[in-house]
Design goal:
- The chain has 113 residues and is of the alpha+beta class.
- The chain has 2 domains: 40 residues, no CATH class; 50 residues.
- The chain has 3 helices and 3 strands.
- The protein has a 3-stranded antiparallel sheet, covered by helices on one side.
- Strand 2 and strand 3 form a beta hairpin.
- Helix 2 runs antiparallel to helix 3.
- The longest helix is centred in the middle third of the chain and has 26 residues.
């Protein structure tokens, strides 16, 4: 059984202090709030990656929608099934779609995709 997961919507901002500590804040008109704190080891890189997660997810969704439509068009044009196209295209699309489902709490590894 899958569980619907929610996350704090963007924008998120990487913050730091003079001691080298990093954290992620949710930016709102009235100031916002802290989403997570990050330790010192590799903190800046980790904080930057985490702060960009909502934007990465948004763009991944847009890319998979676009690529999926292009693959359907290509298959129709060639008169073949989507699965008969280059595996490098279809495999990466399936992986990306599974990742989106996993992030959204909609993927169950025990059920067929």
């Amino acid at each position: 059984m899958t569980k619907k997961l929610d996350h704090t919507p963007a924008p998120w901002k990487m913050m730091s202090d003079k001691n080298g500590f990093f954290w992620i804040d949710k930016v709102e008109k009235d100031g916002g709030f802290s989403i997570c704190n990050i330790g010192k080891q590799d903190a800046e890189g980790n904080a930057l990656l985490i702060s960009k997660a909502p934007d990465l997810l948004y763009n991944l969704k847009r890319m998979t929608t676009c690529l999926g439509q292009h693959l359907k068009d290509e298959a129709k044009e060639k008169g073949v099934k989507d699965s008969e196209l280059c595996p490098c295209k279809t495999t990466e699309l399936r992986n990306a779609l599974r990742l989106i489902k996993e992030i959204e709490g909609k993927w169950n590894p025990y059920l067929p995709e």
